[in-house]
Amino acid sequence: MNIILRNRLWSFGFRSTIMLYFILLIVLPIIGIYSQSFTLGWTPFWESVTDPLAWKAVLLTVKLSVIAALVNVVLGTMIGWVLIRYRFPGRRLLNSLVDLPFALPTAVGGLMILLLLGPNSFAGGLAEKLGFEIVFHEPAIIVAMVFVTFPFVIRGVQPLLEELDKSEEEASYTLGASKARTFFQVIFPSMLPGILSGAMLAFSRALAEFGAVVLVAGNIPGKTLIASVYIFGEIESDNAQGAAAVSVLLLTLSFLILWAVNLVQSRRHGK
């Protein structure tokens, strides 16, 4: 009896600690942002959200995040395919480097992009000769977003390829299907949930990126000023309510994306 009681007390204490940690770390900050955005009422919140500068920053962030997610879909799918289906020297090293953006400080990533694509670099100098610039313009923001969200699609696709029943693929070849038809009718549908969830996570992560982008964006209002940098500027200007209002937009959008990711994954597991 004492053992059962102790086990129940330990289980209750463990669950309570986890819930308290979750509430303090995630729930309370989220509630704080929403409450801060509406401290002065609905009208100031709406004025902060519809401010032309804030609205342009949000729209630019969404547009560039979509582009970065699409780039990751193409590159991530191909890289995930190569790492699972092919064996070559250095494959394990490349596979381990996929997670580097998660471990590397984002500011360091922005500095790397600045050094590699800046005006004094070979690529930056070549781009200037061709009549366009990379750093301090939208292309640099997209590169930074792609860099920090690089692993999502790859890590979403790899386990699905590993779990794929090769007998289905072999049966398709036996029935006379070409490699292209087999890929799009047999392999690709199995990869699609990982691609979709990875793309949505990449999009959500790109929405909030600050460290890598702030060094290469130029931060020109209405042109290269994205939402995270705009929020930072509002905080520096002592406009916490305006910063919280824009943060609520991004946070709500991220919640919707995470809900969609969970829906895709639940359908996949329920299949």
UniProtKB/TrEMBL annotation:
Does this entry carry the keyword Phosphoprotein? no
The UniProt entry's GO CC annotations, sorted and at most eight, read: plasma membrane
**Where does the chain cross the membrane?**
12-34, 54-84, 96-119, 139-161, 210-232, 244-264
Q: Name one GO molecular function term.
A: ABC-type sulfate transporter activity
Keyword annotations of the record: Cell membrane, Membrane, Molybdenum, Sulfate transport, Transmembrane, Transmembrane helix, Transport
Q: Per its UniProt record, what Gene3D superfamilies does this chain match?
A: MetI-like
Highest taxon of the lineage: Bacteria
Bilayer disposition of the protein = Multi-pass membrane protein
Localization per Swiss-Prot or TrEMBL: Cell membrane; Membrane
Keyword Cell membrane found: yes
- The ABC transmembrane type-1 domain is annotated at 58-261
What does the record list as coiled-coil region(s)?
A: none
Q: Which PANTHER family has this protein been placed in?
A: SULFATE TRANSPORT SYSTEM PERMEASE PROTEIN, SULFATE TRANSPORT SYSTEM PERMEASE PROTEIN CYST
Homology family: Belongs to the binding-protein-dependent transport system permease family. CysTW subfamily.
State the oligomer form and interacting partners: The complex is composed of two ATP-binding proteins (CysA), two transmembrane proteins (CysT and CysW) and a solute-binding protein (CysP).
Function noted in UniProt: Part of the binding-protein-dependent transport system for molybdenum; probably responsible for the translocation of the substrate across the membrane.
Q: What is this protein called?
A: Molybdenum transport system permease
In its UniProt entry, the species of origin is given as Paenibacillus montanisoli
